[in-house]
Automatic annotation (TrEMBL):
Matches recorded under InterPro entries: TnpV (IPR026989)
Protein name in UniProt: TnpV protein
One Pfam assignment: TnpV
Organism: Anaerobutyricum hallii
Length: 125
């Protein structure tokens, strides 16, 4: 019996009941970087809205490194935006000592604004 193309390329089959199914494995990723909150959000977005890109990254073995890169970019952008907004709006340690509630409110507003920008620019695009 002639070998199939899959067998000629070194593939093997496993018997599952009456069927022979190919033994397929995803390629191992070279780097296994941790994925943070931003990367997890982008992963969820890819799974729901960009299924083809998600499948291509998964099957090529590049998904984890892609998500780690997105996470790093988002984290850098978030902190840079927060620092710029704090300077622009004049939220200082002096304000924190004088009126803590106002400082907390302004910082929460800044964090929320920066989070929306990062989500729009990197995570959900």
């Amino acid at each position: 019996m002639a070998k199939t193309i899959f067998e000629e390329m070194g593939g093997t089959y496993a018997r599952q009941g009456d069927y022979l199914l190919p033994c397929l494995f995803l390629p191992a990723e070279k780097e296994n970087k941790p994925i943070g909150v931003w990367g997890q959000r982008h992963l969820r977005y890819l799974k729901q809205h960009r299924k083809v890109l998600y499948t291509n990254l998964l099957t090529s073995g590049k998904l984890n490194s892609y998500l780690a890169d997105i996470d790093e970019q988002a984290e850098d952008l978030f902190f840079r935006l927060v620092n710029q907004m704090v300077e622009r709006e004049g939220v200082t340690e002096q304000l924190k000592m004088e009126n803590q509630m106002e400082w907390v409110g302004r910082m929460n507003n800044i964090h929320g604004s920066a989070m929306e920008i990062v989500n729009a620019e990197l995570i959900y695009s």
